[in-house]
From TrEMBL:
<feature type="domain" description="DUF4959">
    <location>
        <begin position="22"/>
        <end position="126"/>
    </location>
</feature>
<feature type="domain" description="DUF5126">
    <location>
        <begin position="128"/>
        <end position="228"/>
    </location>
</feature>
<feature type="domain" description="DUF5000">
    <location>
        <begin position="261"/>
        <end position="399"/>
    </location>
</feature>
<dbReference type="Pfam" id="PF16323">
    <property type="entry name" value="DUF4959"/>
</dbReference>
<dbReference type="Pfam" id="PF17166">
    <property type="entry name" value="DUF5126"/>
</dbReference>
<dbReference type="InterPro" id="IPR033431">
    <property type="entry name" value="DUF5126"/>
</dbReference>
<feature type="signal peptide">
    <location>
        <begin position="1"/>
        <end position="24"/>
    </location>
</feature>
<dbReference type="Pfam" id="PF16391">
    <property type="entry name" value="DUF5000"/>
</dbReference>
<dbReference type="InterPro" id="IPR032164">
    <property type="entry name" value="DUF5000"/>
</dbReference>
<keyword id="KW-0732">Signal</keyword>
<dbReference type="InterPro" id="IPR032527">
    <property type="entry name" value="DUF4959"/>
</dbReference>
<protein>
    <submittedName>
        <fullName>DUF4959 domain-containing protein</fullName>
    </submittedName>
</protein>
<dbReference type="InterPro" id="IPR008979">
    <property type="entry name" value="Galactose-bd-like_sf"/>
</dbReference>
Length: 403
């Protein structure tokens, strides 16, 4: 009987504790204090108007239980904004403005009981947001199979440059390949379009959903075709790299295999002095648009590692119309490239983002101002193991042989 009573008592106590904690969870965290007297107001507010934002400086009220200062304002697109700053500082930065109008900002001091002071209202006049200068800098031109877009983003704003075409209902619709970036020099091509005049609309949007006007343009994409593998032939120049084994050869670069070890071009790992170069003839002089390259994926522990050993990390593509003794001074640099590992994980560690980015190969674009060439060379500058030997599964060559 005594045991049952003790057990029942513990059940009652446990139930009370659960109920108490449940109530606390429902009510949320309580203020640090219970002071309903509002703190004093901030004073001597100074305003620095900046592109798309405002910096405020102020004097804090002399209240011992002051916790923070909060500013509330509404963007031109109707979005309500709130920015808080600790009582350890006397300034804050307000972002998200277009800079096309003046806006009112209400500033409150808040104590540890979450009691707010009376508002101090200031009028700010931010300068024009960066998206408008980016928009004015947009340039478009025809490219192989599509449109080339260039723009300047000197302050490296996080933007979306939306590229739109009309859908079957006649409404402008963003292309899934629109440009999302924060780089200072934007230069990107959207491909896969027919070689007939194409109508495009472009605008710039920032992370607060502010948008610019729309640029309308018509572009006639340049003809692009894959260069047939059947017309390609291996070439060996005096300074080309030695192969890793007798069965691997230059022809493995364009034999159609993208996964197997036996279909991959390897240079010798034991020779790591000087550049590792490979040369081949693409069959005819061609105005190149891009090379699509599959890096070799090493099978390790039941998975394929694409950023490993001889897979190229940094490399160059060279072109020429006449062969020489291999001296690169007689070749045209078609482009220099660096492969970026999306995850940023340490060497020999890869995640699904890395797999998705690498398993279908990647395009390495060649500038439209480069000359038409017949012979190609790849020079491995650095592989993922830190050496210069290379492991390339396959290369597809694209361009216009009629130019």
């Amino acid at each position: 009987m005594k045991r049952k009573l003790i057990k029942s008592s513990w059940i009652i106590v446990w139930s009370l504790l659960v109920a108490m904690f449940s109530c606390e969870e429902e009510q949320g965290p309580a203020p640090l204090e219970n002071n309903t007297n509002p703190p004093g107001i901030v004073e001597n507010v100074s305003i620095e108007n900046l592109p798309g934002k405002v910096r405020l400086e102020y004097a804090l009220p002399d209240d011992k239980d002051l916790l923070y200062v909060v500013a509330r304002y509404t963007l031109e697109n109707g979005t309500s904004m709130e920015v808080k700053a600790s009582y350890y500082q006397n300034s804050m930065e307000l972002e998200g403005f277009t800079g096309l109008s003046e806006k009112e900002v209400n500033i409150y001091a808040v104590n540890r009981s979450e009691t707010e002071s009376d508002p101090v209202t200031v009028t700010v006049a931010p300068l024009e947001a960066p998206i408008f200068a980016i928009f004015r800098s947009i340039g478009t031109s025809p490219d192989f199979g599509g449109i080339r877009i260039e723009a300047e983003n000197p302050t490296e704003e996080d933007i979306a440059l939306l590229v739109m075409q009309k859908n079957i209902q006649g409404d402008w619709e963003p292309d899934s390949r629109s440009i999302y970036t924060s780089v200072s020099e934007i230069g990107q091509s959207l491909r896969g379009f027919d070689t007939i005049p194409q109508n495009f609309a472009l605008l710039v949007r920032d992370r607060w959903l502010n948008v610019t006007d729309t640029l309308f343009t018509q572009i006639k994409p340049l003809y692009e075709a894959i260069i047939p593998r059947g017309g390609m032939n291996p070439i060996t120049l005096p300074n080309d790299a030695e192969l890793i084994a007798s069965h691997t050869e230059v022809r493995d670069l364009f034999n159609g295999g993208t996964l197997d070890w036996s279909d991959t071009y390897f240079t010798s790992r034991t020779i790591d002095v000087g550049p590792h170069l490979v040369t081949w003839d693409i069959g005819r002089t061609t105005k190149l648009s891009r090379l699509h390259i599959w890096q070799f994926s090493e099978p390790i522990g039941g998975q394929r590692l694409y950023y490993y050993l001889g897979a190229m990390r940094k490399f160059r593509i060279w072109g020429a119309n006449e062969l020489n003794d291999g001296d690169l001074s007689g070749w045209t640099l078609m482009g220099e490239y660096e492969v970026i590992k999306p995850s940023g994980l340490p060497y020999a560690q890869e995640d699904n983002n890395d797999l998705v980015a690498a398993q279908d190969g990647a395009d390495y674009e060649i500038s439209i101002d480069k000359p038409a060439v017949r012979y190609l060379r790849i020079e491995c500058l650095e592989n993922w193991a830190g050496g210069e030997y290379m492991a390339v599964s396959e290369v597809e060559v694209y361009g216009n042989p009629n130019l």
